[in-house]
UniProtKB/TrEMBL annotation:
It holds the Pfam family Amidase. GO terms for molecular function: amidase activity. Its EC number is 3.5.1.4. It is an enzyme of class 3 (hydrolase). It comes from Acinetobacter baylyi (strain ATCC 33305 / BD413 / ADP1). This is Amidase. Coiled coil: none annotated. InterPro entries: Amidase (IPR000120), Amidase_CS (IPR020556), Amidase_dom (IPR023631), AS_sf (IPR036928). The gene is amdA. Keywords: Hydrolase.
Length: 504
């Protein structure tokens, strides 16, 4: 089918948008010159897209009602059975609803994307099915994944399994809630500012944000290529390590992947922590909104590591706060350019694009008032930086990121792992309907003070449960060197084996 050709008036408007002025005569001549370019567009329009084959049949999918979905943690339910045997045989899995599962609707928490149905499976979906997993559906996530709270998803908030009416954390709210509640064995979550680790901490489970690029992001709706991470959440360390073994490794389609190193992560689980050096990052306890009760639980957990033979020392890492500050220009300008102006995919990278996602997501412009306040706030910052400063602060922040990463690397050359609270608080009450913009937005970002930094530096980080405050879980975060997930699992498994986290 031939694409629609521009008229003289349309071309003059395009030129004007590019700050170029054309006369009618010039526009007519340019139109004649560029016709051959549009002939190439016609050819491409006639060709089939180059997308992966869908190899596993799936049952009819449906959106569960409230009686079947008391936490609002499911977006769609289905059943996709994988191979008859494999590492994940017998394991049930939920996918965060920004992950492509062919023929099952994907909304990414936003009514503006409702009705989109992916044509192919994400790389990690195929890997899990090949390993024998059964996928039971899509887990609710926050509006385009822009919230550390669980109150921004359309149409309703996700509840914490430990206390109804409280946040499950975000943006992988449904993934963590379903695992914590026992609805599935495992789930896939994604993390750009803490969205694996925050809900894991709030829901009392294990959440691993792997090294940037270790797990392919192919077939997952991006926010910003340089901070996109995907990883497992689970009720046990072993299941978490097992799932990472299955999904990790290059696929040749993701520009986030470079010099990827995988390991047999489950081989680390019985090594113990005797002699392991852990640096306790002072700045991770110095957040302005740190709850002293949360800090106390993490300190008590640190004592348990010492009892098991770990060498634990307090350290200072000033660049931890720097990395958190870098998130604002990188995250806000980056998401505005890629996820919004770039219609979810952006430009200038090799790999597998979601063409049908572009077709659907471009229509956000017609429904922009329906975007969540959290996304709008980030877009306002991002657009201001792009329009008024031409992206120079994004660029400068990416340069300075190397400084923050090097500071982490230096400490991780001295210590096997770094440690700090995952979040400065336990789960908070969900905002009431009709609350102020200030409350709505602050409840979305109040908990990211420690987690955003590792999305900027790319280091692996895992939240493990380490106590209860007012009967709500507390999270402790372990941070490792690039591709050092094995050591994180080593420490987490020793803690899980030797400590009843609920009694700390």
């Amino acid at each position: 089918m031939a694409i629609q050709r521009p008229t003289i008036d349309v071309l003059k408007q395009i030129a004007n948008d590019l700050h170029i002025q054309l006369t009618d005569t010039e526009a007519a001549e340019y139109l004649s010159i560029i016709q051959s370019n549009f002939d190439a567009y016609d050819l491409i329009d006639e060709l089939d897209d180059e997308i992966p084959e869908v190899r596993y049949p799936r049952a009819n999918s449906y959106r569960p009602d409230a009686t079947e979905n008391p936490l609002n943690a499911w977006y769609y339910k289905t059943e996709v059975k994988g191979a008859l045997s494999g590492k994940l045989s017998g394991k049930t899995i939920a996918l965060k609803d920004n992950i492509f599962l062919a023929d099952v609707p994907m909304m990414n928490g936003s009514t503006t994307l409702e009705g989109f149905v992916p044509e192919y499976d994400a790389t990690i979906v195929t890997r899990m099915l090949d390993a024998g997993a059964t996928i039971l559906g899509k887990a609710t996530c926050e509006h385009f994944c822009l919230s550390g709270g669980s109150h921004t998803s359309d149409p309703v908030a996700v509840h914490n399994p430990y206390r109804h009416g409280y946040s499950a954390g975000g943006s992988s709210s449904g993934s963590a809630a379903l695992v914590s509640n026992g609805d599935v064995d495992l789930a896939i979550a994604c993390d750009q500012g803490g969205s694996i680790r925050i809900p894991a901490a709030f829901c009392g489970i294990y959440g691993m944000k792997p090294t940037h690029g270790l797990v392919p992001y192919t077939g997952i709706m991006p926010i910003e290529n340089t901070i996109d991470h995907v990883g497992p959440v689970s009720r046990t360390v072993r299941d978490n390590a097992l799932l990472l073994e299955v999904i990790a490794g290059g696929d040749g389609l993701d520009p986030r992947q470079y010099h990827v190193k995988t390991e047999d992560y489950t081989s680390y689980l019985d090594r113990g922590v005797k002699g392991l050096k852990i640096g306790v990052v002072r700045e991770g306890f110095n957040l302005a909104n740190m709850d002293p009760k949360v800090a106390e639980k993490v300190r008590k957990a640190i004592v348990e590591f010492e009892k098991m033979g770990a060498i634990v020392e307090d350290i200072s890492l000033p660049e931890h706060a720097l990395a958190g500050a870098l998130w604002s220009p990188v995250g806000c300008e980056g998401l505005t350019a890629q996820m919004m102006h770039g219609n979810g995919m952006g430009f200038n990278w090799e790999g597998l694009y979601g063409v049908k996602l572009i077709d659907k997501h471009k229509d956000w412009r017609k429904q922009a008032d329906q975007l969540s306040p959290t996304l709008k706030a980030c877009m306002f910052v991002g657009e201001y930086g792009i329009k008024n400063y031409s992206g120079r602060y994004y660029a400068k922040s990416k340069n300075i990121t190397r400084r923050a990463r090097a500071a982490y690397d230096q400490k991780l050359a001295e210590y096997d792992l770094l440690l700090m609270p995952t979040v400065p608080m336990v789960a908070q009450p969900l905002p009431e309907p009709g609350c102020s913009l200030t409350e709505y937005i602050s409840k979305a970002f109040e908990m990211i003070g420690n987690t955003a930094s590792q999305d900027i530096t790319g280091h692996p980080a895992m939240s493990i449960p380490c106590g209860l405050v007012d009967d709500l879980p507390v999270g402790l975060m372990l941070i490792g060197p690039y591709f050092g997930e094995g050591k994180i699992y080593q420490a987490a498994a020793a803690f899980e084996k030797n400590v009843d986290w609920k009694t700390i």
